[in-house]
Design goal:
By secondary structure, the chain is of the alpha+beta class. The chain has one domain: HIT family, subunit A. It is globular.
Length: 139
């Protein structure tokens, strides 16, 4: 896509701090990092979100995520790593090109709000109804 910033990064039109690359994916440092080592993994082929993404590209992104996560572990020794992916403006996807975040977390870094939420018991009848509706849609 011509106006997509991530497509321009893949084409080399915009510089990036490359971490990993193969035939299907490109991984690079997030220039607005939540924590030190925050890395993005994207498919080279443009897909706006999980609904548009091919299964092959999804698999390639996750294979690369595993490799990059291991490298982050070796290089930075975090105590944990958040793996996050947002789809659509309603959940604050800013760049409309599928991207998978790897966000390492060390003890001395501030808590990440996205990894903590209040546990509230749900309405079991509603949960059952929605689960059945989703399961039926898989057929």
């Amino acid at each position: 896509m011509d106006d997509c910033i991530f497509c321009k990064i893949v084409k080399g039109e915009i510089p990036a701090f490359k971490v990993y690359e193969d035939e299907q994916v490109f991984a690079f440092a997030d220039i607005n990092p939540i924590n030190r080592g925050h890395t993005l993994i994207i498919p080279k082929k443009h897909a706006e979100n999980i609904w548009e993404m091919s299964e092959e590209d999804m698999q390639a992104v996750h294979r690369a995520a595993k490799k990059v996560a291991r490298a982050i572990e070796k290089a930075l020794h975090p105590e944990g790593i958040a793996c996050m992916q947002l789809n659509g403006k309603a959940v604050n996807q800013v760049v409309m090109h599928y991207h998978y975040h790897l966000i390492p977390k060390s003890a001395d870094e501030p808590e990440m709000a996205l990894t903590r939420w209040e546990l509230k018991p749900g309405d079991m009848d509603q949960i059952k109804e929605i689960s059945e509706k989703i399961a039926a849609a898989l057929s």
